[in-house]
Amino acid sequence: MSTKILLAIVGPTAIGKTALGITLAKYFDTEIISADSRQFFKEMNIGTAVPSLEELQEANHHCIQHKSIFEPYSVGDFEKDAIALLTHLFKENNIAVMVGGSGLYVDAVVNGLDEFPHVDPEIRLALNQTLEKEGLKSLQTELKKRDPEYAQKVDMENPHRLIRALEVCRTSNQPYSSFLNRPKAKRPFKTLYIGIDAPREIIYQRINKRVDLMMEAGLLDEARKLHEHKRLNALQTVGYKELFEYLDDNCTLEFAVSEIKKNTRRFAKRQLTWLRKNNSILWVPFDSKPEKVIQMVTDQLKTDLYAS
After folding, report:
1. What does the longest C-alpha to C-alpha distance in the chain come to?
2. Binning pLDDT at 50, 70 and 90, where does residue 128 land?
3. 256, 47 Cβ separation under 8 angstroms
4. Is the predicted pLDDT of residue 113 greater than 60, yes or no?
5. Contact assessment for residue 103 and residue 274, using Cβ atoms and an 8 Å cutoff
6. What is the DSSP pairing of strand 32-34 with strand 282-285?
7. Alpha carbons 120 and 126: distance in angstroms, whole number
8. How many other β-carbons are positioned within 10 Å of the β-carbon of residue 164?
9. The two domains 5-113+184-307 and 121-179 share their CATH topology (first three levels equal)
C-alpha cells in the first residue's frame, strides 16, 4: 500500500483515546502524534492526563510535553510541526496515528489552516490585559460587535478562541469569519477519523472518576506550584483555573472540584458537537475489544482504498 494514511482518533475527553491510539500504533508498527493542546506543556502533567510512562513506552509519542508554558505555541505552530513529523514518519511507514483531544488542532493537520494576517504581539498583549482586568464578558461584547457571524459559532467561554478572533479583527479591521473557509493546500495523505463513542451518562461518569483520580494524584499541589503564573494562556484551562480560584480564597476546595467536573463535562459536550459535524468519522463503541476495533479499521481502510 503506497497511499499514506493518517488515523485520527477523536472523541470526548476521558473516553479512552490514548489506549486506542497505542493499540493501533502497535498493530500498524507506527508512531503517535498527540493533538491535545493541553498536553503540549511540560509543567502541566496531572491536570492534562498525559499518557503514563508505561503508555509512552508502549508506543513512540510526539508532541507530548515538548513545550513550556512560557513559550507561545499556536495552532499554526502545531500544524507546521505535525506536518514535518508526518513527512518523516511516512518515509518509514504508510500509516501514522494522531490522537486528538482538540478538534481545531486535528483539523488543522488534516485540512490545513485558513490564512490570517500577521498579528502585532502588542495587540495580543492588550487583549490579554483586557481579559485580566475586565473579564471574559468584555471580549465577548467586542466580538459580537466586530464579527456577529463568528460569535454565533465560536465557544464564547473559551478565552483563547476569543482573543485569536479579536486580534485578527483588530489587525485587519475585517471580521475574523471573512478569512475562514478559503481554499487550502491539499494534503499528500488520506485521513481516516476514528471516533470513540459512549452514552452521555458513561462519559460523565468517566469524567467524574478521572477528576477524583487527578485530585488523589496531587493535582492541587501541581496547581499550587503553577499559581503564580496563572495569567499565562496555557493555564487558562479546565482543572487549573478552578483550583486557582480556591487558592485565591474565592471558593471552597469542594466547590472547585465540582466546578472542574462540571466544566469538563461541558467541554466534552462541545467536543461531541464539533465531531458530530464530521460525517466521515468511523464511530466505535468505547467498550469494543481491541481486536474488534482493529478489524473495523482495517475493513474501512480496504473500502476507502478500493474506492480511491
Report:
1. 61
2. confident
3. no
4. yes
5. yes
6. unpaired
7. 10
8. 20
9. no
Grid cell for residue 268: 466534552
Helix (H, G, I), strand (E, B) or coil at 181: coil
Annotated binding site for substrate: 13-18
Rounded to 5 degrees, what are φ and ψ at 130? -65, -45
Query: What number is the average pLDDT over the span 119-133?
Result: 89
| Whole-angstrom distance, CA of residue 249 vs CA of residue 232 | 20
pTM, two decimals, is 0.82
Tell me the three cell numbers of residue 254: 469542594
Annotated binding-site residues for ATP read: 11-18
Q: Is the pLDDT of residue 308 over 70?
A: no
Distances (CA, A) of 85 to 35, 64, 65, 78, 136: 12, 13, 16, 10, 36
Q: Where are the domains of the chain?
A: 5-113+184-307, 121-179
Candidates 1.10.20.140, 1.10.357.10, 1.20.190.50, 1.20.1560.10; correct CATH number of 121-179? 1.10.20.140
CA–CA gap between residue 261 and residue 210 (Å, rounded): 9
Specify the residue for cell string 464530521. 278
For the domain covering 5-113+184-307, report its CATH number: 3.40.50.300
Confidence class for position 203, pLDDT limits 50, 70, 90: very high
Annotated binding site: 11-18
